[in-house]
Write a structure and sequence with these properties.
Elements (H helix, E strand, L loop, with lengths): L1 E4 L5 H13 L3 E6 L4 E6 L3 H4 L9 E5 L19 E3 L2 E3 L5 E5 L6 H13 L4 E3 L17 H14 L3 E4 L6 H5 L4 E4 L7 H8 L5 E4 L6 H13 L5 E5 L17 H8 L4 E3 L1 H5 L2 H13 L4 E5 L17 H17 L6
Parallel strand pairs: 7-8, 7-14, 8-9, 9-10, 10-11, 11-12, 12-13, 13-14
Antiparallel strand pairs: 1-3, 1-4, 2-3, 5-6
Helix pairs in contact: 3-4, 6-7, 10-11
The structure holds phosphoenolpyruvate (PEP) and manganese (II) ion.
C-alpha cells in the first residue's frame, strides 16, 4: 500500500499516519519529495485494506499494490486452471461449446437439441429449469421436472448438464442433478448464493453481472473460491450501456483482460450479449479470436415457439453452420475443437 499525504502535511499528522499503520503490524518507509511526502507500507496489505485510511488527517490518496482478489488472481496461480465437468475439460487447448435452449420446455425438444448439438461439436448441454425473468408474468421454468429431463438427456447423450441455480434454497436440489451450476448475471453479486455454491465441489459457471466491472466479477469468483470450491469458470455475456442496438454491449476486451488477470477459464455468451440470432456467429468468432476458452450458445428446435430468448436462439441448421464456420477462427487462435 502506498499512502500519498496532503500538501503541507504536518509532522504530527505524519507521525500519526505512521503510528496507525505500524499499530496494525506493518512497517512504514517515508519518502519526502519536493511537493509531497509518500508513506510506503510494507507487510500484509490485507491488514490495511479495510481500514478507512482516507479518513485519517493528512492522507490524500491510497494506492493498493496488490489485487483485492487472491485465489482468482494470476499472481497467485500463474498456470491456467482447467475445470472439468463430466469428463470435459474447460481451460485447456480445446475450445468448449456448451449449447442448448434457454429454458427446458420438455423432454422431446431437449433430447433432440442435445443430439444435434453433440453431433456438431458441443461438449455439454445447457437449459434453464429455474429462470430469472425480468417480468414475474413471464415463464419461470419447469423447476425440478426440468432437472429430471436434463438428467435423462445426459444419460441418453453422455453430455454433462449446465443449469442455473437462482436461490440458496435450491442449491442442494440443483446440485443433485447438475454437472455445473450456473450463476446468472442477475445473481452475480448474490453473496449468500456465491457462498453456498462455494461450499460444494461442483463446477460453477459464473456469468458477469450486467452492471459489474471485471473486478466485481473476479471478487464474485473469489467468494466462491474462498469457501473451498476452486472450480469456477467465468462468462462474459454483455453489459448494460447506453447503446440500444443490441440487447447488451458485448465487452470483448474483458476477455483478454480476464485472461491476463485470472487463471480461471473464460467463456463467452454471444447469445445474451447480442440478443439476436444474426449476431451470434460474428460475436462468437470475435470471442475466440480474443482468447475465450469456450462458448455458451442458445439453440432451440424452433426458436419462434421458444418460451424464453427465442430471438437470440439458433435453430439447428444455424448451429451447424456456426460450428463449421468457427473452425478457422479456432485454428487461427491455436486451439482445437471437437
Ligand atoms: C441464461 O443463460 O439463459 C441467462 C438467463 O443468462 P444471463 O444470466 O446471462 O442473463
Ligand atoms: Mn437465455
Amino acid at each position: 500500500m502506498i499512502i500519498v499525504t496532503r500538501k503541507g502535511v504536518t509532522p504530527e499528522e505524519l507521525d500519526h499516519i505512521r503510528e496507525r499503520v505500524e499499530s496494525l503490524g506493518l512497517q512504514t518507509h517515508v519518502s519526502r519529495g519536493e511537493h509531497r511526502t509518500i508513506v510506503g507500507c510494507v507487510g500484509d496489505e490485507d491488514l490495511l485494506r479495510h481500514v478507512p485510511l482516507l479518513s485519517i488527517p493528512g492522507i490524500e490518496a491510497v494506492h493498493p499494490v496488490l489485487k483485492p482478489y487472491k485465489l482468482a488472481s494470476r499472481d497467485f496461480v500463474p498456470e491456467a486452471t482447467r475445470v472439468t465437468l463430466g469428463g470435459v475439460e474447460i481451460g485447456g487447448e480445446e475450445v468448449v461449446t456448451i449449447a442448448g435452449p434457454c429454458s427446458v420446455e420438455g423432454k422431446d425438444m431437449l433430447e433432440r437439441t442435445a443430439h444435434h448439438v453433440k453431433t456438431h461439436g458441443a461438449r455439454a448441454i445447457r437449459g434453464g429449469a429455474f429462470k430469472p425473468r425480468s417480468s414475474p408474468y413471464s415463464f419461470q421454468g419447469m423447476g425440478e421436472d426440468a432437472l429430471k429431463i436434463l438428467a435423462e438427456v445426459r444419460s441418453a447423450t453422455g453430455l454433462p448438464i449446465v443449469t442455473e441455480v437462482m436461490d440458496t434454497r435450491q442449491v442442494d436440489l440443483v446440485a443433485s442433478y447438475a454437472d455445473m451450476l450456473q450463476i446468472g448475471a442477475r445473481n452475480m453479486q448474490n453473496y449468500s448464493l456465491l457462498t453456498e455454491v462455494g461450499r460444494l465441489q461442483r463446477p460453477v459457471l459464473l456469468k458477469r453481472g450486467m452492471a459489474a466491472t471485471v473486478q466485481d466479477l473476479l471478487l464474485a469468483a473469489e467468494y466462491i473460491m474462498s469457501q473451498g470450491n476452486p472450480h469456477v469458470v467465468l462468462c462474459e455475456r454483455g453489459i448494460r450501456t447506453f447503446g440500444t442496438a443490441t440487447r447488451n454491449t458485448f465487452d470483448l476486451a474483458a476477455i483478454p483482460v480476464l485472461k491476463r488477470e485470472t487463471h480461471l477459464p473464460v467463456l463467452a455468451d454471444p447469445s445474451h450479449a447480442g440478443g439476436r440470432r444474426d449476431l451470434v456467429a460474428p460475436l462468437a468468432y470475435a470471442a475466440i479470436a480474443a482468447g475465450a476458452d469456450g462458448l455458451l450458445i442458445e439453440v432451440h428446435p424452433n426458436p419462434e415457439t421458444a418460451t424464453s430468448d427465442g430471438e437470440q436462439s439458433l435453430d439447428f441448421s444455424e448451429f451447424e453452420t456456426l460450428m463449421a464456420t468457427l473452425r478457422p477462427f479456432v485454428a487461427a487462435a491455436g486451439r482445437t475443437m471437437s
